C-alpha cells in the first residue's frame, strides 16, 4: 500500500528527508507521495518513517494504491537495483 498525505499537512518539511526512496516531494499546496516510489519503508525500516515523524498525523494508507508486503518488498528490490 502506498501512503498518502491529506490536506491537513502543515508543510513542516519533516517527512521529505525521512523517505529512503525519495517518494515525498513538495506539491502545489502540500507535500505529496509518489505511489510508484513508496514502499512504506519496507526493506529500510520496520515502520514508515514519514508517519513516525509527522506532527499532525496526516499520512495514511492510500486506498487507491493497495499493495501487500510482498508487493512492497518487490518494489523495494526494483528501486535499489
UniProtKB/TrEMBL annotation:
Coiled-coil regions listed: none
Start and end residues of each 4Fe-4S ferredoxin-type domain: 1-29, 31-64
GO-annotated cellular components: cytoplasm
GO terms, molecular function: 4 iron, 4 sulfur cluster binding; metal ion binding
Keywords annotated in UniProt: 4Fe-4S, Electron transport, Iron, Iron-sulfur, Metal-binding, Transport
Pfam families per the UniProt record, alphabetical: Fer4 (PF00037)
Co-factor requirement: [4Fe-4S] cluster
Annotated InterPro entries: 4Fe4S_Fe-S-bd, 4Fe4S_Fe_S_CS, PSI_iron-sulfur_center, YfhL-like
PANTHER family tied to this protein: PHOTOSYSTEM I IRON-SULFUR CENTER, PHOTOSYSTEM I IRON-SULFUR CENTER-RELATED
Protein's name according to its UniProt entry: Ferredoxin
Organism: Methylomonas lenta
Amino acid at each position: 500500500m502506498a501512503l498518502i498525505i491529506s490536506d491537513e499537512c502543515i508543510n513542516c518539511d519533516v517527512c521529505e528527508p525521512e523517505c529512503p526512496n525519495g517518494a515525498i516531494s513538495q506539491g502545489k499546496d502540500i507535500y505529496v507521495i509518489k505511489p510508484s516510489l513508496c514502499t512504506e519503508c519496507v526493506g529500510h525500516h520496520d515502520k514508515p518513517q514519514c508517519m513516525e515523524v509527522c506532527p499532525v498525523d496526516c499520512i495514511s494508507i492510500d486506498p487507491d494504491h493497495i499493495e501487500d508486503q510482498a508487493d512492497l518488498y518487490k518494489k523495494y528490490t526494483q528501486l535499489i537495483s
